[in-house]
Structure formats: structure tokens, C-alpha cells
Design goal:
Number of domains: 2
Number of helices: 15
Number of strands: 13
Distance between the termini: 74 Å
CATH topology of the largest domain: Rossmann fold
CATH class of the largest domain: Alpha Beta
Shape: elongated
CATH superfamily of the largest domain: P-loop containing nucleotide triphosphate hydrolases
Structural class: alpha/beta
Helix content: 40-55%
């Protein structure tokens, strides 16, 4: 099947060809005709299946070639990275049109975003928090809105954005086409879809609990204090071209990235406390292979679309099995192959068991023969007496407060 069979506008087909799209993915094959008919749509598919083009192409076909100096389509998405990524796709698809697009998210200056809303940009892609801030200030009119898209709806739920999403929707005209895309369909999202969609068609591609084809999975049991050493050993032993490493917290991400750099590895990091400029620079450097390793929290688990990631390493086992599926889905994209390695401390065995129950896959356990798994935890460095006295004084004060 080819994109020409959708009867898209020739300017869009030209852009599709220029962007190197060869043939529609399964979600695109099923969703594009429904979306082009104007019907509301629920799309349930794993990340990396081509959902962006599945909703972007019908929207652009509907809006092109007439401009109305109004906001005609709104795409809500949970993270800055995903908003920037969707905006980049829109820029490519509108290369041969006069359709204006803009991205609105936090971490960058507001004035350009305010202008985009005031001037009536055709397509806005936004994160809920920043857009709601601007709406509260009376910036932007949505009277002419024709299409609303909620992308990664379950992720917006996880991040606590659902109340903001509902407030934004209250400012939109009720007569519109609405499309909701999500990798999973928890009860809250099903309830929301019933409130904002009218007689929607449903497209479901694959099972969210099943990792993508082409991913080789393995688990490495190791003591918590030896995880960094084992990771360094694996990075030296394995032919890993492009490695995405997931850590559980921002602090652990910072600490791990620092260790990797001190060990001579080219590594970048992203997490929620990094500025937008830092996050974009890290992603671009990783995409361009200036960095071999990107260390991230789960902010990169969904929607991150970087070709050629050869390995995903779970430095920390995710506490929910669905997050594991999303994490390892960053490799083996577009029918490629990749590897997913998980370092499992004794206290994380229950999380690994939950992952295996969800995926119905027994993840094989591996060891590195030359690695010393029995190495003791290094003793903490000794401090001078004055430091100990100050520390003991703090401890006494804490104990006194606790007793009180």
C-alpha cells in the first residue's frame, strides 16, 4: 500500500516523499481514512508505530490550501520533547503548503508563543500546562477550532495533566472532530473518551503488553551497589553503538551520567529539572551521535523517536510493567532490531516478575564471567573530627525533635 491511495493533496504527498516515508504503517493504514472522513477516532497503539503522521496528515489535508487566520487544529501532548518532535514532523509535512504551525510548551520564552496564539496559527501543538497558563491570561481564541487531538493520553494521565486537559477542552467549541491516541486505555481515559468523543471509531494495533518484534531481552542480577560497575563493564564488553539508559530518579540520573563521563564515555542526560535548552541539546547530540549514551528518567520512555538506538539499558527496573514495555520500545523501531538489558537488584525482583507476567515472556538471566559479583560495598571516606562533631550535633537535634 502507498500513501497515494489515501487521496491526499498532492502537496502533502510531495512532502511525504521528501521525508522518506515509504509505505503506511498499520496504524496509518487504518486511522487515516477514518480521520479523513471527519469521524471521531480512538487510536490504541504502542509508541513508535507512526501515530503522529496518522493524525497529522488528515488534519493537514483538511486545512490545506485555505487559510483563515484562526487556530483550526490543536494537538495536546504530555511532554516538551514530544511537542517539539510533533512540531518537527508538522514542519516537514507542511513544507509545500502555506499552513502555519507552532509549538507551545514550558521552559522557553512566552512572547513567540503568545504571538502564535494571537495571530491564529493554523495548527498548535502544546503541552497542557503552558497552554492553560496562556488561556487564563486571555491569549488565544479557539472559536474556529475544527480538530482536537489528545496524543499519549495515558501518559498525560500518569503525569497528572488530566484536570488541565479538561479545563482546556471547556474553552473549545463542542462541534469539532476529536481524536484520542493512547498506548493503553485505563479507566480514566475511557471515561474521558466517553465525555469528549461522539460515536468514535476505534483502531487498535497490537497489544500494549507485547514488546516490539526484534528486541532481544536479558536480565542481569546484581547487587545494588555494583550496578554502576556492571554497567561500565557491559559498555566496554558489548558492541553498543547508541545506548539509552533509564534511571528511576533525577538524582540517580545525574549521578550516573557523572560516573559515565568520569569513566571516559560520551554521555548526556535529560530529566524534568533540566532546562528546555539542555534537554533539546542532549537529544540532538544523542541523535547526531555526538553522545553515545543518553541517561534519562521515564520522561524519555514514551514518544521519543530517535532512529538507530541499538541498546536500552534499565539501570533501575521500572516499578510498573507497562513502563518497561515503553522503555524498551525506544529500540528496534521501524522493524529494526535492538537489545534491552535490565540490571536487577534483589529488591527489584518483584518488579521483574510483574514485567514477565504482563509480557508473558520469561526474560533470560545473564552474567558477565569476569565480573566480581561478590565485591563488598566500599566503606565511606573518613572525615576529620570537626566534621564528625558537626554531623553528630545535627543528629542529636533531629533526635530531640523526634522525641518532642
Amino acid at each position: 500500500m502507498s500513501f497515494s491511495q489515501f487521496e491526499l493533496h498532492p502537496d502533502l504527498l510531495k512532502a511525504v516523499q521528501h521525508m522518506g516515508y515509504k509505505e503506511p504503517t498499520p496504524i496509518q493504514q487504518q486511522a487515516i481514512p477514518i480521520a479523513m472522513s471527519g469521524r471521531d477516532l480512538i487510536g490504541c497503539a504502542q509508541t513508535g508505530t507512526g501515530k503522529t503522521a496518522a493524525f497529522a496528515l488528515p488534519i493537514l489535508h483538511k486545512l490545506h490550501p485555505t487559510r483563515r487566520a484562526q487556530i483550526r487544529a490543536l494537538i495536546l501532548t504530555p511532554t516538551r520533547e514530544l511537542a517539539a518532535q510533533i512540531y518537527e514532523v508538522l514542519q516537514g509535512l507542511t513544507a509545500y503548503t502555506k499552513i502555519y504551525t507552532a509549538a507551545i510548551y514550558g521552559g522557553v520564552g512566552m512572547p513567540p508563543q503568545e504571538r502564535a496564539l494571537r495571530l491564529g496559527t493554523d495548527v498548535i501543538v502544546a503541552t497542557p500546562g503552558r497552554l492553560l497558563d496562556l488561556i487564563k491570561r486571555g491569549i488565544g481564541r479557539f472559536d474556529g477550532l475544527e480538530v482536537l487531538v489528545l496524543d499519549e493520553a495515558d501518559r498525560m494521565l500518569d503525569m497528572g495533566f488530566l484536570p488541565d486537559v479538561k479545563r482546556i477542552i471547556s474553552h473549545l467549541p463542542s462541534q469539532r472532530q476529536t481524536m484520542l491516541f493512547s498506548a493503553t486505555m485505563p479507566a480514566e481515559i475511557l471515561q474521558l473518551s466517553g465525555q469528549i468523543l461522539q460515536n468514535p471509531a476505534t483502531v487498535q494495533i497490537g497489544r500494549q503488553s507485547k514488546p516490539a518484534e526484534g528486541i532481544t531481552q536479558s536480565a542481569y542480577p546484581v547487587a545494588q551497589h555494583l550496578k554502576t560497575d556492571l554497567l561500565l563493564t557491559l559498555l566496554e564488553a558489548e558492541a553498543m553503538e547508541s545506548v539509552l539508559v533509564f534511571a528511576r530518579t533525577k538524582i540517580r540520573t545525574e549521578r550516573l551520567a557523572r560516573h559515565l563521563k568520569e569513566s571516559g564515555h560520551k554521555a548526556a542526560l535529560i530529566h524534568g529539572d533540566r532546562t528546555q535548552g539542555q534537554r533539546l541539546a542532549a537529544l540532538e547530540g544523542f541523535r547526531e551521535r555526538s553522545y553515545r549514551i543518553l541517561v534519562a528518567t521515564d520522561i524519555a520512555a514514551r514518544g521519543l523517536d530517535i532512529d538507530g538506538i541499538s541498546h536500552v539499558i534499565n539501570y533501575d527496573v521500572p516499578m510498573t510493567p507497562e513502563d518497561y514495555v515503553h522503555r524498551i520500545g525506544r529500540t528496534a523501531r521501524a522493524k529494526a532490531i535492538g537489545e534491552a538489558l535490565t540490571l536487577v537488584a534483589p529488591g527489584e525482583e518483584e518488579f521483574l516478575s510483574a514485567i514477565q507476567r504482563l509480557t508473558k515472556i520469561e526474560i533470560p538471566r545473564q552474567t558477565v564471567p569476569e565480573f566480581d559479583y561478590h565485591r563488598a560495598l566500599k566503606p565511606r571516606p573518613q572525615h576529620d573530627g570537626r566534621r564528625h562533631k558537626r554531623f553528630n550535633g545535627r543528629a542529636k537535634r533531629r533526635n530531640a525533635y523526634a522525641a518532642y
